[in-house]
Amino acid sequence: MIYYFLPSVGFVKLVTGRLPIMRQDIFHAIADATRREILELLTGKPLNINTLTAHFEVSRTAVYKHLKVLEGCGLVVITPQGRERFCEARFSVLTEVTEWANAFLEAKTKPQEPHAEESKDAAKPRKKKHGKKKHKHKASEK
Length: 142
Known about the structure:
By secondary structure, the chain is α+β, with helices and mostly antiparallel strands. The protein has helices spanning 26-31, 33-41, 49-54, 60-72, 95-109, 116-123, and strands spanning 2-6, 10-14, 47-48, 76-81, 84-89. Strand 1 and strand 2 form a beta hairpin.
């Protein structure tokens, strides 16, 4: 297989006779509970597709589709060995998710400074707001 790199997309797999398969979004890949369970099973050791399928109550085709999504974003590498295909997890790809989450964690732990517009408004004295005048109804005049 041939891979090429597009700056706006990432690595793209070129398949002969087909349109290129665009790199899958890693957040989409880990959003599904079945795919997360597949990654847990692949932690520490490569497994063949039949062994993975035995852990789920879905067809081999369904598991294979999940594996293709994981392979599309680089979380899983499928390598043929004889008549079998072995799947291996590549958790180094999760750095994209880690960096994204850390940006939020850092923002949460930093002390919040007021925005420039808010600090200008705070320096100005506020005018007193007067309540609405109540009007008497002339219902009794009828």
